[in-house]
Amino acid sequence: MAEGEPVPPPYGMHAKRGCTDILFLLLLLCAVVGYVVVAVIAWDNGNPWRLLYGTDYLGNVCAKTGSKNAPRLPNVTDWGERDVLWYPFDVDDITYTDNAVKMGVCLQKCPGMDDIVTVYPDPSNTTQNMPSSFTVAYTSSLKFRRCIPDSNNSAALHRLADIIDISDYVFEGIAEVRAAEDTIWYSLAVALGLSAAWLILVYFFALPMLFVSILLIIAGFAVGGYLLNDHADDLKNDDNSDYKWVRAAGWVLWIMGGLFTLLCVFMNGKIRKGARVAKEGSAMLLTIPTVLFIPFIFVVFLVGWAAMAVLTLLNIQTMESTSTGAFNWTDSEIQGFIREVPVDKGYFHAYNIIFFVWFSLFLIDTEYLCTAMTASFWYFSNPDGVRKSPPTCSPFIALATTMKHVGTTAFGSAIITICKVIRWVLLRVENRLKNVSSESVKCCFKIAQCCLCCLEKCLKVLSEKAYVMTAIEGTNFCSSARRAISLIVTNFASVAIVEIITAFMTFIGKLLIVCATGVFAYFCLEEWDVSPNVESFWVPLIVICILAYLISGVFIHIFSTVVDSIMLCHCVDKEANNTPVYGNNRTRQIASDCSKHGKYVAY
To answer: For 103-117, 333-347, 357-371, 503-517, which range has the lowest pLDDT when averaged over its residues?
Structure first.
């Protein structure tokens, strides 16, 4: 080591590390083994093809001829072509049993109005009330392998919705989304590009972007209020009584815009400091651009895990035999076709959902720890006077190092999962007792839910700070949490102001990306005719905005994690050396400015 060069601190990549919170890692592994057992049972006994292809009144899956799904129907030779499920009910007079109606009949195509549909025979002779044929009483079209009543036949659509326990608007909404597939893909590409561009532009134009964003938001409030008031005038001229509500909404937008403007004027100085915070976080992202691969790696794992959990849920939902329902199965062949599951599938559902939440939080928290570890490697690899660029492979080194601390993320995610489970149990008990409990009991449940929600939010923030300290010092969850609380209390002003500014900037970034993507999607749907088969743009537009929010959240989450990590790294640096040795002038200026506005002067 050259003379005068600072001794590497025991932080970041120089920290002494070992496996932490091994007990919770073992608990997670045991839970994984249990989930594998549940999944094997569900996949072996379930039959999700029932949901995809539909199931007829005998329990047969339409068009499926495999060993597990093959129907036992004499005199039916074209079963492989019967891939359409039709619901035989009369719109005006329901004369058939509900169970027979729910099951439906497998056909080759959707029948026309007044057609005669012949029902194939029941070999077990257990459905004596089922007519041998039906007269079609409604027009329908093929959607999702089912004959769905046409949208102009509202009576049939509502009746079908009542039968299969789903809103009829769901059918139309899904159809609109499928018709707008091209627009959705183009919009997602725009959201992806805007999110990446936002991270790059923050470094060069942090302060102008903040003020332009604020002006655009204020202009949005003003224009929105004007348009609503103008629409209210039109309604008033048409003698529509709803004009008062529209005008009130316009005034609400104007008032919110005024309050937002006053808040921005009051926080002018803090907004300028926020620009420096953003610039420092962006500097790290531009120095090590490979850090952007971290969330995408975990998103792939998370999407794959979610798909696995959904498929397991479908198998659990369909693994219980329909023979436990309305019909008494006596034919041994049919009982062999639909397997009996003696275990209550409610327990399978509970385990599947709880473990899905825990493992999903575990993946999200591990991604947070890996990003924080990359930031700590970057910060403590650059002492003053020795400005060396860290290796571009730092994120992958950090990912390998994070594997030593997966027990810590298992610990933190388990705590949040327990809080969520307790809230769900209380909510279920409250729903069970809502008709018999007094107002005081209901109030106690509401208070308990509120307290648990606040506790969950606090534990979530605390666990994130603990992960940052684990990334910096390599300690376990409890030690990291105590250390994080100590640093936050000692440097309260600096940390609090940076948290507020970061939250403000991330909010603006997400809002602009979602709004810009929504405007692009609107023009694609309404002006540019990219998806001509879409009748109403509302459902695709809402779906696009939700997806744009999720995409922007992935990028901006990296930014906020890096800023939080750099701030705590600076606090540790200051505590260890009295005067910050690591970081740079911009970081020290941020902390110095922030400390002047709080009670606790840390710098």
So the answer is: 333-347
Query: Residue 385 is encoded by which pair of tokens?
Result: 């006077």
Query: What is the C-alpha to C-alpha distance for residues 515 and 92, in angstroms, rounded to an integer?
Result: 46
CA dihedral sign of residues 84, 85, 88, 89: negative
Q: DSSP character for 84?
A: E
Q: What distance in Å separates the CA atoms of residue 135 and residue 446, rounded to the nearest whole number? A: 52
Number of neighbours of residue 116 by Cβ within 10 angstroms: 9
Q: Which of 107-121, 154-168, 224-238, 254-268 has the lowest mean pLDDT?
A: 154-168
Report the pLDDT value the prediction gives residue 412, as an integer from 0 to 100.
Answer: 94
Report, as an integer, the average pLDDT of 514-532.
80
Show the CA angle centred on residue 461, arms to residues 458 and 467, nearest 5°: 135
Q: How many CB atoms lie under 10 A from the CB of residue 133?
A: 9
Instruction: Return the residue matching tokens 């825990």.
Output: 358
**What is the rounded CA–CA span in Å between residue 253 and residue 242?**
17
Question: Above 80 in pLDDT, residue 395?
Answer: no
CB-based contact 108:81 (threshold 8 Å):
yes
Comparing C-alpha atoms, which of 59, 63, 87, 88 is closest to residue 76?
63
DSSP 470-532: HHHH---HHHHHHHHHHHHHHTHHHHHHHHHHHHHHHHHHHHHHHHHHHHHHHIIIIIS-SST
Query: Which of 205, 207, 367, 253 has its CA nearest to residue 299?
Result: 367
Among residues 295, 405, 294, the alpha carbon closest in space to that of 15 is found at 405
In DSSP terms, 143 is beta-bridged to 146
Residue 471: phi and psi, rounded to 5, are -65, -35
Contact yes or no for 333/72 (Cβ under 8 A): yes
| Residue 485 and residue 431 in contact, taking contact as beta carbons nearer than 8 Å | no
3-state SS class at 169: helix
Q: Mean per-residue pLDDT for 235-256?
A: 78
Report how far residue 496's alpha carbon sits from residue 502's, in angstroms, rounded to the nearest whole number: 10
Report in angstroms the alpha-carbon separations of 82 from 85, 132, 464, 487. 8, 18, 54, 68
Please enumerate, as own/partner, the contacts of 128-135 that have beta carbons within 8 Å and a separation of 24 or more.
Answer: 129/96, 129/97, 129/100, 130/57, 130/96, 130/97, 130/100, 131/96, 134/88, 134/105
Number of Cβ within a 10 Å radius of residue 548: 26
CA 186/CA 29 separation, integer angstroms: 40
Residue 134 has phi, psi (to 5 degrees) of -130, 150
First-residue to last-residue Cα distance in the chain: 29
Q: 267, 289, 294, 276: which is closest to 369 by C-alpha? A: 294
Say how far apart CA 409 and CA 368 lie, in whole Å.
9
The H-or-E segment that residue 116 falls in is strand 116-118
Q: Is the pLDDT of residue 254 over 80?
A: yes
Q: Cβ(42)–Cβ(312) under 8 Å?
A: yes
